[in-house]
Amino acid sequence: MSQILNRNVLVLNKHWMAIHVCSVRRALSLVYQDLASVVTEDYEVFDFDTWKDLSRFADTGVVYTPQYPLLAPEVILLRRCNKLPKHYVKFNRRNIYQRDNFTCQYCGKVLPRNELTIDHVIPRSRGGKSNWQNVVLACIQCNADKGDRLPKECAMNPMREPREPHWSMLMYRPLIEEDHTLWRKFVDVAYWNVTLEE
Fold first, then answer.
1. Phi and psi at residue 178, in whole multiples of 5°?
2. Domain ranges of the chain
3. Contact call for residues 156 and 145 (beta carbons, < 8 A)
4. How far apart are the C-alpha atoms of 125 and 122, rounded to whole Å?
5. CB–CB of 74/31 below 8 Å?
6. Of the candidates 165, 159, 125, 128, which has an alpha carbon nearest to the alpha carbon of residue 142?
7. What separation in angstroms does the CA of 115 have from each of 122, 140, 169?
8. Are the CB atoms for 184 and 162 separated by under 8 Å?
9. Of 135, 129, 141, 124, which Cα lies nearest the Cα of 95?
10. 70, 94, 98, 169: which has the highest count of C-beta atoms within 10 A?
11. CA 56: distance to chain centroid?
């Protein structure tokens, strides 16, 4: 059941624009509090009580509560939110790994999480800060080879200049990695038509 509760749910504002991704746990909480409704593939909108009644007939993707089963929603529609929130991407390990796509930024190898480290391009001992513009993923070997040196001192420059990722990168990643057919109705056009930064 905990796997189902941690699945991704697309969040739409009241104008049906994709604005966020949350967990099934959070989505059900919002629907229960009457702050959101569940949206189906036929664009039908359900409040909590109706969704609860509909959930009785589901076989898969169900969260079992002590009182009744609840079908895990894929998309929810907020009742009151009418504008796009100002998004920023949290500076944390998970988002660094996602930004760099589990790829060593020095040798280009795609590796599992346990074979990658976070490297400060300008080492902290030389005044480098822990921020988006100064950290990249590095395999253990490349990190050891670079050590406490500047990139120009060891001829090891990152493949891409490190920078803060756009918030939509993290919102659309589940669409690419997981099968969210219903999401495509709401984000596919926006994803492919968005203007990219240089």
1. -120, 165
2. 2-85+168-193, 93-154
3. yes
4. 8
5. no
6. 159
7. 21, 6, 23
8. no
9. 135
10. 70
11. 30
Q: Tell me, what amino acid is at 42? A: D
Look at residue 86 in the predicted model and tell me its pLDDT: 62
| pLDDT (mean) for 109-128 | 94
End-to-end, the C-alpha distance of the chain in Å comes to 43
Condensed to tens digits (0 to 9), the pLDDT of residues 129-175 reads 999 999 999 999 999 999 999 999 999 999 999 998 876 665 555 54
Task: Report the relative pairing of strands 18-23 and 36-39 from DSSP bridges.
Answer: unpaired
- The crossing angle, in degrees rounded to 10, of helices 48-55 and 24-32 is 120
Pick the residue with more confidence: 86 or 22? Answer: 22
Residue 33 vs residues 48, 49, 70, 85, 115: alpha-carbon distances, Å:
8, 11, 15, 21, 43
CATH number of 93-154: 1.10.30.50
Residues, the chain, total? Answer: 198
Between 167 and 4, the more confident residue is 4
Alpha-carbon span 24 to 13, nearest angstrom: 17
Residue 94 identity: R
Q: What is the per-residue pLDDT across 61-86, written as a single tens digit (0 to 9) for each?
A: 899 889 999 999 999 999 987 666 56
The residues near 70 (Cβ < 8 Å, ≥ 6 apart) are: 28, 51, 52, 55, 62, 63, 64
